[in-house]
Amino acid sequence: MGFVSPFDKYIEQMDFKFKDLNQKEIYYKHALNVNSDYFTQLVLSEIKYRADHQRNIIASIGGQQGCGKSIYGIQLARACAIYFGEPFDLQKHLFVDADLLNDEIRKTPYRTTHQYDEQPRKRVGYGSVSNTIDLSDYEEICRYTQKNIIYCSPSVLEHKHYFVFEQFQPEPDKLMNEDCLNCRIVSKCKVNKYETICEELTDEERKKMKKPKYVFNERDGYPTKFSFMLYTKRYIDDIFIPRGIVSFPMLPVELAKEYDEVKKNNIENFEKRQTQGWNNKIEELNKFIDEYEEHLIFENAKKQKKVRSKKAIKGIFFKKFGDRRYTIEQTEILIEMVKIELQERGYL
Prior knowledge:
This protein is of the alpha/beta class. It folds into three domains: 217 residues, Rossmann fold (3-Layer(aba) Sandwich); 43 residues, no CATH class; 68 residues. 47% of the residues lie in helices and 14% in strands. It is built from 14 helices and ten strands. Strands 1, 2, 3, 4, 5, 6, 7 and 8 form an eight-stranded mixed sheet that branches. It has a two-stranded antiparallel sheet with strand order 9-10. Helix 7 links the parallel strand 3 and strand 4. The chain starts with 5 loop residues before the first helix and ends with a helix.
């Protein structure tokens, strides 16, 4: 047998040792008891191994609201970025729009890590199913470009993933602060995630505190560590088996603030049912019309400038975008939009 990574060797030995146990037995008798620090380092060594051996990371993180799966995903993405050598940028590489991810992942540099945050189970709207199919197909070829995708969702969905991280504890590890626990305005204070209001306490109340003022990341309940159970497939039967607990610390303060702003903007667009991916397609379509306008029209015998047939427009469209970028239905919609725009520009 050829050389395998330390992680793969560990999995191989584990599967042989526990070959007669079912998933539940392995979970309670082994996976929960593996030293988390050791196992986390083992997983990090696997990320490095994959970066060094022309492989990539396709991972899913599942868990309920508030368990920290998104922040955990960012820390996993940052770990990937270290070993793959391409920085993970929250503004550029964190998506809640499958359409946008589907487009952007083909433009980012080799070895870039992407995170699809709060992946919905429900797929609706223009191109929703085809985007899912395209992403699934792209997962198959990501290894060549060594691009990584990390999916976060309440329940793990079907992907070509190798790593599956599942919530196993009700909440992440959190800071305890007795001054906050005993504070009469703690509920009001926690309304703003990134500011505290210790100054609103009386002088007498503040004298009883260990510090006269706390910053937000010192407040009671602030997360300190996120831990998820890692599952990978057992080679003999393709069943996902619990392997051990992987833990990451809370994001650095400035990055936590940046993530909050990014998520806020993403949620606002999601609630408005706006997708940047669709807006980008409209912008791209308008550029296409500007570039090919003289080819999309013709002059008839009466010297009238008319819009070419849908079939002719489609040929020019395929010349620009290729015939596999959009589904048949999407192509029909976009061709119709080209005709409407040309008519609005005054062509018959």
